[in-house]
Amino acid sequence: MTPEIHDLSTLKLKLKRTTGKPASFLVGAPFSWDEGRGVPPVGGFIELIRKRVAAEGSSYSEDLEKRLEGAGAAGQYQAAMSFVYTVFDADVVSEIVQDAVLSARKPGSPVLDPTADFDGDPNDWDLSRGQRGLAHLVKLDPNRFPGPVFTTNFDPMIGLALQQQGIRYRPYTIPLEGSLNAPISVARDEVNIFHLHGYWRNSPTLHSPEQLEAKRQQLQASLEKHLNQTNLVVMAYSGWDDIFTSALANCLSTDTFSGTVTWCFYGNSPAEIREQNAALFEKFKGGIQQGRITFFHGVNCHTFLDELIADLGFDTPTRSAIESSPLAGWEVITTERLDNLTPLTGDEAVRFFDGAIPTLRHAISPLIPRLSQTARLVERIDQGLANTAACTMQVVRAAGGEGKSTALLQAAVTAATERDCIVLHRPSTDAGLNPDVVASFDPAHRWVLVADDAEGLISDLWECAVRMHDAGRHNVTFLLAARDADWIAEKGDQKGWNGRLTRLDDLVLGGINEGDAELVVDAWSEQGDAGLRGLMSEKSRDERIKKLVAATRAQDVKAGDGSFFGGLLDTRFSAAALLDHVVTLMEPLRDRDIDGGTGTLYDALLYVANCHAVGMPGLEKRVLASICDLPVNRVSTVITGQLGRELGAAESRGHILTRHRRVAEAVTVASETRFGSNLEDIWDALVEHIARLGREEKDIGECFNWIIHAGSRLKRSLPSGLDDDRRGAIAVEAAYAAVKHQPEWLGVVVDLARALRLSGRPAEACKEMSDRLKTARGKQDLLRIIRGYFYEWSTCAGNLRTRQGSLAGAWLAAFSLSDSLPPEVTLERAKLSCAGLGVAFENLLSGVPDSAFAKGRRAATHLGWQTNPDPRAAGYFERHQSELDEAGTPVPADNDEALVWLSEAAQSAHAELDDALLRNLQKNGRLTFKRLRECLDKP
């Protein structure tokens, strides 16, 4: 293959694209050697080996030199290392590697013990310009350049350069089977570094051809996982003839892999590069043919990255805010930065009133009212700044949509412009909090750290509190906000904060007082009819204020939606007006592609809104990333951030959701009734991708079970703005998707039957249960589900409203409790089946009070009362009991007699059944119920 090799300017254009794939990196030995300093390249390693061998005697040196002469220039490094392995041992190889790495430390730096779990202070190492440039690039633009970094180098200097920029690094080596067990990092202040040939301390290192070319069975799958959807930038790397390069080439030839490679050569002559790298081009032939790998010449790794940074186009205040922040992913709020922000327009203010997420531009705008909670927050900041005994923490807690984010930003702006302190703001949930950096803050300054959605920082906050307390520091105030439910779920109140810092009383927001309502109504009025929206019908200012206050107080906040924003919606929009409003916001999203992913923002919104609308806590970011073909660490920027500006999309505990469930419901309804979208496709994709993620990552949280089992719930939980038939059809399609994509589970078949039954299709449900029974034996959840399987089947049969259906329902419900099935009977199962049996036998009554079916109904009721029934089940039992008493049906003397009656009634149903499959479940029709008896007899 003779691919085209492009120039440096084209490379810059490629990497500057905001819509391109995020970059990961692969670097080799020259990356650690710059201007005669650092870890020596191959020639330097060989000299170290010569010195070490010479110490053993001249005969050893002579033998080494013979081997070097026979190896030729290209193979001398491996020949030298093979000699040391053969004549000496692996410990000597490790010593040589450690000597080489430690030679990169500055003269006079403290002695570093290679056996310690510590890489030392970054300032004690001769970091190269390339290493510093890479770290600077990641800090400035973590969305485009998030990593990970792959390297054949043994040294820690890439990680140390990142640490110098406030970015945590996690070094990993690759075990013999080739699995990269590190989780895919999604934090903006954390980068995984994979040392392909080993690490300088506490790790074996690879050098010989036998080691480098040994098969690693899991390596390709691991690479696909970590490099999928990224652009791997290769520089200072000669293309080792090792298993890693082969696995990378194989990835590019795989249909399921959607990553790309940008390969940079140092040389300036494309002709020479082609001549010298023919074997490399042949190895990557598949990737070249598919356009997945491109090549560039003239790339000096030590100068290029700084040149790229200069060309990225950051305005001076923004770049200064990021660069001057010691915390990666955070920004310094300064007067200069705020003065350079574009003033908010009236239209943008109205969008904010309608639910858009606040930004610093909103926080400084006179168009946005400052409510009383902002003043209270500023007072709390002042308390923190005045505290000379300990650091201070202030938490603002509320349901979503109570105005905590706006108040937080407005208070932060006041602190930055009117107080003597340095304010660091976390603009995205992707940014973490590095306790090492916080502990190193200049004690001569007061620092205020401002973070929304702070529940994700609790562990790091605690570590910061411990470190600062132990150091006797008191110059940091943590100003935090979180949804109340999220803070509790992440155990934020279970830390002993007051033993480590001063935790001020939490500021809990909810609703609105009349004074704040006046400010809000006046701000709306300044924007005319568009600002007032639904309040235009109220002619006086006082009436408008009263209506807003009343609307917030009338909200039901049990679902976690804020009363303040709920009141705003009720005041500003009727149901029809809200639908019209979201349509205007959704329309332009249909033409906005997702940067670096697949689909549009409209598509992403539908996935999020459908989940939020049915009562889920939003959509897990990993699921949306999979659907939209994005790395997880890009979702917040390219989806949540974009939707937040228009529709108020937000994040909570790793989930994306709309600002209020009513908005999600309106989006869901509008997508079908106004835009003609097919929600069956939405749920099919949700099920497909979460099923795949469940197999790959195992822990997807509560979102997994909700989506997999959505088919059984959607008929009742989708918005009522969709008609009954549509909700049923969507539910059935979601259930079929689960059967297709989660075939190892029996529970999804039960969901399918339930979805069909609730959609008025009981005959189809019964057929599915009958047809799929033969495959039940191999299902993973067989023992847990099998009794419920027969119970749902019985309910579907009863819904046929025929004599045979009622007989089947009674027989199957009894079978679900019988000893013919191996699992234990639980009280919950007994309760449901007894309630169902009462209904089934009711439909078979002939008017004879002591018939087998009447006594079976009495037995089911007698036993059901012993299951601690909930109010719904108790209602069934009360009705059955009352009707049986009125008919004069006898009462069993005890449980033994009740179980005999139940068995006789089941056998009577079996005797009349026409369905051979159901009759063959127990050919003689005689069921026993020892397990049910054991369940009821338990204390």
Automatic annotation (TrEMBL):
Q: Name one Pfam family in it.
A: nSTAND_NTPase5
Q: Locate the Novel STAND NTPase domain: which residues?
A: 351-493
Superkingdom in the source lineage: Bacteria
- What protein am I looking at? Novel STAND NTPase 5 domain-containing protein
